Amino acid sequence: MSTLDTSFSSASRGAPCPPRSADAAMAPPLHRSAMPARPWVGLRAGLAHALRGEPTSGTPSSLHDNPAPWEQAATRRRRAFLATIAALTVVATVWLAHMLPAADSVGLQALRTAQIGLFALLFAWVSAGFATALMGFVVHLRGDRYALSADAVRHRPLPDDARTALIMPICNEHVPTVFAGLRATCESLASTGGQRHFDLYILSDSSKPELWAAERAAWEQLRASLDEDGIAVQVYYRRRKLRRHRKAGNVADFCRRWGRNYRYMVVLDADSVMSGQCLTDLVRLMEAHPQAGIIQTLPQAVGQTTLHARAQQFASRVTGRLFTLGMQYWQLGESHYWGHNAIIRVAPFMAHCGLADVPGRGALSGEILSHDFVEAALMRRAGYHVWLVSDLGGSYEQNPPNLIEELQRDRRWCQGNLQNFQLIAEPGLHPVHRAMLATGAMAYVSAPLWLAFLGLGVASWVQHAAQSDGTGLAPPSHLLALWGLTLTLLMLPRALAVAVVFLRREQAEFGGGWALVRSAMAEAALSVVQAPVRMAAHTGFVVAALTGWRIGWTSPAREALALRWRDALRRFAPQSAGAGLALLALGVAHLPALPWMLPVGLPLLAAAPLAVWTSRENDLSQATRTLLIPEERHAPRVLRRAWRFARQPQAVAA
User: Fold this and answer.
1) Neighbours of 232 (CB within 10 A)
2) pLDDT at 27
3) DSSP 39
4) Can you give 398-466 as a three-state secondary structure string?
5) pLDDT > 80? residue 314
6) How far apart are alpha carbons 314 and 410 in whole angstroms?
7) Which domain holds residue 266?
8) Which stretches are transmembrane (predicted)?
9) Averaged pLDDT for residues 265-280
10) What does 123-141 look like in DSSP terms, one character per residue?
């Protein structure tokens, strides 16, 4: 057959049926088809095409003379979005240019110019986040008649031929978590009556023999449990021996083998849990919108109990929802795909979303690392729409339980996003998806840029102090006002998000009004304290990626385990040592500047204790309902079942 393991298996169920051996049932017959990967032009060649005036953008739907109403609305909204960013950036940059002291030497002039340039870029980045949140607030107040809505299709019948595969690619994952979520998802799907439209595939890339046995046993237990409950969802398990192209290759292998059997596929992550209502609504949305190629849900982070994870869960539930509404507002049918908890139209995905290796040498060449943004861009290039739907409830995931796990995930994403930037000039990509590739890189490149801006500011301050006999113990008041404006733009989205909760009268679900405000303040404070640690770590990731340091791609920890002190010290000691030396040097060079750098330096010095403290459960925050989210207060049935199965080793093999 191939280099892949042939131990494929399935379970076919209707009413309760007698148990069968694992070897008695096989996978569906192979229905092979191609998934071609179009070679990339590359960044240099793409830019050369553009400089020669050759077309490099536009999709079939954006080139015709009569754009759809939503496309016209999207154009107007994007102009308003860019105008808001430009206006805020111009005002702030001109303000900074006027307040900086005049340069009377070539060196100071170079510092001044670099400061202004970096500030303009970084303030535009901050303004983009603020503008997105502001648009989300407007959507809450006014609604959005152009957005896709699950409510509009909820009573639409599912046609018999709307066959959908639920696929979960896994690689060295925590087996009980994986199969507990799958069992709860299948139960929820059965409660809707739509289970006959779905098959489930567990696509294993695990490399450890002990995990192969655990996965196989858990799969058999899952089949038996569903059989006992009379749940007619067909379940398959496949393990690859040749693990090429990571998760994207795992999904592509499924498509080449069985993709033609299905109209749609829903991609799950190893920690995904989805309700049956959400899954059937996704299929209904696809049926109602034949040009939709990908529809992405908003996965809500749940299930973790550490202080770090609960803060992230609260931010996702409150501020994240507002940002999603804002992105949905200006992106419309050219939106994000995050790689999981989304439905994909299989035929165009197979025809147009094959991923070739990125040409070149070094860490940013070779296999595509972060496939999701690229697949969305290719789907749109083929003329299909990519939608983000905010009113689809019942889509869940887990966040990293501690800061180290978060940074390990960010390191992978950083390298993948920087690699994706090389595809920004590919012919045929829609401008919005080009912008997404750029902002994906900027999410990490902004860290060394902020660090450089701080360094230039300190250098300029010290230089001017030296030339003015050391006068000037504090930065000018108007400079502090500019920093205040920047912090305001960073914090206003949180305030708007809390306001939305009150406007929706949902504060009781967060423990009450005071608990909601207290939670927002606690999350904001923790975010501010952790920001320098993230900035330093992301700077290191960018430098490593650009200098050719390849990284391993391991599965993140799904279970909450308190960090050990030695692990935290090993990870953060270099940052703390670097911060200590920098503060010492600044104190020697210009002592009055030292207090102004402490908000950045102190969190770096305390990075290890901070990581250890936030990696543990915090009884006080739970007792006072701080950082409470609705799913903790009244968990939906699908989550309660998933958590129950995960706690019962006999329910799924460990």
Assistant:
1) 18
2) 77
3) P
4) CCCCCHHHHHHHHHHHHHHHHHHHCCCCCCCECHHHHHHHHHHHHHHHHHHHHHHHHHHHHHHHHHHHH
5) yes
6) 19
7) 162-270
8) 80-98, 118-139, 441-462, 482-503, 572-590
9) 96
10) HHHHHHHHHHHHHHHHHHH
pLDDT for the residue numbered 105: 72
What are 129's two structure tokens? 């986040």
What pLDDT band is residue 593 in, cutting at 50, 70 and 90?
Answer: confident
323 within a domain of the structure (yes/no): no
Cα first-last separation, the chain = 30
| Structure tokens belonging to residue 295 | 């529809």
Would you say residue 19 lies in a domain? Answer: no
Give the integer Cα–Cα distance in Å for 254 and 238.
9
Question: E strand or H helix at 167, and its extent?
Answer: strand 164-170
- For 418-451, b/e burial (b = at least 16 CB within 10 A) is bbbbbbbbbbbbbebbbbbbeebbbebbbbbbbb
d(CA 113, CA 111): 6
Question: Per-residue pLDDT averaged across 203-227, rounded?
Answer: 91
In 3D, which of 263, 255, 311 has the Cα closest to residue 527? 311
Task: Find the CATH number of the domain harbouring 259.
Answer: 3.90.550.10
- Rounded to whole angstroms, the Cα distance separating 604 from 541 reads 16
Structure tokens at 545: 């990626």
For residue 15, the model assigns a pLDDT of: 42
Q: Three-class SS of residue 265?
A: strand
Task: Give how many domains the chain has, as a whole number.
Answer: 1
Q: How confident is the model at residue 554 (pLDDT cuts 50, 70, 90)?
A: low
Banded model confidence at residue 108, pLDDT cuts 50, 70, 90: confident
Q: Is residue 248 part of a domain?
A: yes
Please report where in the chains the tokens 């057959």 appear, as a residue. 1
| Contact call for residues 287 and 197 (beta carbons, < 8 A) | no
Positive/negative CA dihedral, 625, 626, 630, 636: negative
pTM: 0.91
Q: Which residues lie below 8 Å from residue 236, measured CB to CB, with a gap of 6+?
A: 8, 9, 10, 27, 28, 199, 200, 201, 202
Report the candidate in 58, 40, 31, 60 with the shortest Cα–Cα distance to residue 350: 31
Name residues whose C-beta falls within 8 Å of residue 176's C-beta, 6 or more positions apart in sequence: 218, 645, 646, 649, 652, 653, 654
- 486 within some domain: no
